[in-house]
Design brief:
519 residues; alpha/beta; TIM Barrel; Double Stranded RNA Binding Domain; 3 domains; 18 helices; 43% helix; 19% strand; binds 3-methyl-2-oxobutanoic acid; binds zinc ion
């Protein structure tokens, strides 16, 4: 049996479907490219039939990603499989992932079909996917609660039909490690053609056992783990990629199994996903939490100073956390900033040094000392702002205080025009948002959530605003960062506006295509 465990990342599919607001194409592509750099074998990019936006994202990722297999999800329905094939055909290598539920409760109550009919649908779906590619994955949804006899029958039929990977999901996170490992063990012992496919697992974390269950399955011969960055996913999430990868790396002597994950990319990828998805990582989260490598008690600190391995089973550097010993201030030159960004894991092609340096100097003037998290945030936001955005903030002035009516004046670039408006509000952010509504000439953007966070420590922290806004029945994320709360709030709204603009453009293109096709 191979000693390579494939890492199948589903952050952009299972992870994304659980976000309070969906990601745009630009954000998804950024995450896909980071996953490729991290070394994942397969990127599940989305569910193409679900919306024109998802189709477009899967197609864009399929076109741009070269070193990982790009995969799309489909139910066991012709139209889903055809949408996957269409979206993915531009890729160098792609996979179609089709699934149907197999547990009694799902087959009876959800599908309302007989077990025989479900096997027939699965076989038909695998065969249809094969029209597009030989790389076909089949999943038995809710396998964790499926009777083992029926599961064996289904797995055998899917492999006979041509599935090259068969996935065993614990869809509702119900099983325990001994039980889940037992299911995989049984499949290896009872399915006669099991050696013709790779057995994959996809565990949810409802009881906090997703990683433990995946590991138990790997111990029994599963050679693909489906997982997500920061453990994002439906409800309590999926198996966390960084945890399973670091278990196999840290305990290599015990398991003797390898993955293609470049562990030094983990921290950077985790931050990118957390920022773009507007999903903070809990401080004590294994591997990527802010406290994962910090030692609090005096005894521990003393031990680590004497020998790092007294209290550290892996180094922070191994997951890409590099301590900074440079004091970055307005006196630091371009080459120091470039050097530090490269130390933090970025490539020269990731940033435009001139614009990052200009932003760095502005920030250093305001804050004095600039820390790593500031630098990473600057880079993140300068990348966001550098895409010839349709909406751009040109000028902002806000007034507020006790006994005065808050007011704001905002000038926005809208396409190739600049529009200035003023308004009052119940606070300076509200006033600025009202001024932006006047600029837009409509109030179709409904802010459903507004969160203010500090990025960094103490009085030196930057203000990060995350908003969720509803527009045309869809939810959009926006984030803004600045030393000033009002500016940060305005930037977050502009971020949303640019995403709604992009979504409108995609919808229009799709309508146009449908018209041309005469449908
Ligand atoms: O949890 C699940 O069963 C899934 C399948 C679609 C693989 O996400
Ligand atoms: Zn799932």
């Amino acid at each position: 049996m191979s000693n390579h465990v494939k890492i199948f990342d589903t952050t952009l599919r299972d992870g994304e479907q659980a976000l309070p607001a969906s990601l745009g194409v630009k954000e998804k592509l950024k995450i896909a490219l980071a996953l490729e750099r991290l070394g994942v074998d397969i990127i599940e990019a989305g569910f193409p039939v679900s919306s024109p936006g998802d189709f477009d994202s899967v197609q864009t990722i399929a076109r741009e990603v070269k070193n990982a297999t790009v995969c799309g999800l489909s139910r066991a329905l012709d139209k889903d499989i055809d949408a996957c094939g269409e979206a993915l055909k531009v890729a160098d290598h792609f996979r179609i992932h089709t699934f149907i539920a197999t547990s009694e409760i799902h087959v009876g109550s959800k599908l309302r079909k007989s077990q025989d009919e479900v096997v027939e649908m699965a076989v038909k779906a695998v065969k249809r996917a094969q029209r597009y590619t030989n790389d076909v994955e089949f999943s038995c949804e809710d396998a964790g609660r499926t009777h083992i006899d029926y599961l064996c029958r289904m797995v055998e039929a899917a492999i006979n039909a041509g599935a090259t990977t068969v996935n065993i999901p614990d869809t509702v996170g119900y099983t325990t490690p001994t039980e889940f490992g037992g299911i995989i063990h049984n499949l290896f012992n009872r399915v006669p053609n099991i050696d013709k496919a790779i057995i994959s697992v996809h565990c949810h974390n409802d009881l906090g056992l997703a990683v433990a269950n995946s590991l138990a399955a790997v111990e029994q011969g599963a050679r693909q783990v489906e997982c997500t960055i920061n453990g994002l996913g439906e409800r309590a999430g999926n198996c966390s990629l960084e945890e399973i990868a670091m278990i196999l790396q840290t305990r290599h002597a015990m398991y003797g199994l390898n993955t293609n994950i470049r562990s030094q990319e983990i921290s950077r990828t985790s931050k990118l996903v957390s920022n773009l998805c507007n999903m903070p990582v809990q401080a004590n989260k294994a591997i990527v939490g802010a406290n994962a490598f910090s030692h609090s008690s005096g005894i521990h600190q003393d031990g680590v100073l004497k020998a790092q391995n007294t209290y550290e089973i892996m180094t922070p550097e191994s997951v890409g956390i590099n301590k900074n010993n440079l004091n970055l201030t307005s006196r630091s030159g371009r080459h120091v900033i470039k050097h530090r960004l490269i130390e933090l894991g970025y490539k020269e092609s990731d940033f435009d040094l001139e614009s990052v340096y200009a932003a760095f100097l502005k920030l250093a003037d305001k804050k004095g000392q600039v820390f790593d998290y500031d630098l990473e945030a600057l880079l993140f936001f300068s990348q966001q702002e550098h895409h010839h955005a349709y909406y751009e903030l040109k000028y902002l002035h806000a007034n507020s205080g006790k006994e005065i009516i808050p007011s704001a004046t905002v000038c926005l670039k809208v396409g190739d025009k600049e529009i200035t408006e003023s308004a009052i509000g119940n606070g300076p952010v509200d006033a600025a948002y009202n001024a932006i509504t006047k600029v837009l000439g409509h109030n179709l953007i409904d802010i459903v959530d507004f969160k203010l966070d500090s990025k960094g420590e103490g009085a030196n922290a930057l203000a990060q605003v995350s908003v969720i806004a509803e527009y045309n029945g869809r939810r959009f994320n926006g984030i803004g960062l600045a030393t000033d709360i009002v500016e940060s709030g305005v930037k977050a709204l502009i971020y949303v506006l640019n995403n709604t603009h992009l979504a409108d453009q995609i919808d229009q293109q799709k309508k146009q295509q449908v018209k041309i096709a005469g449908v």
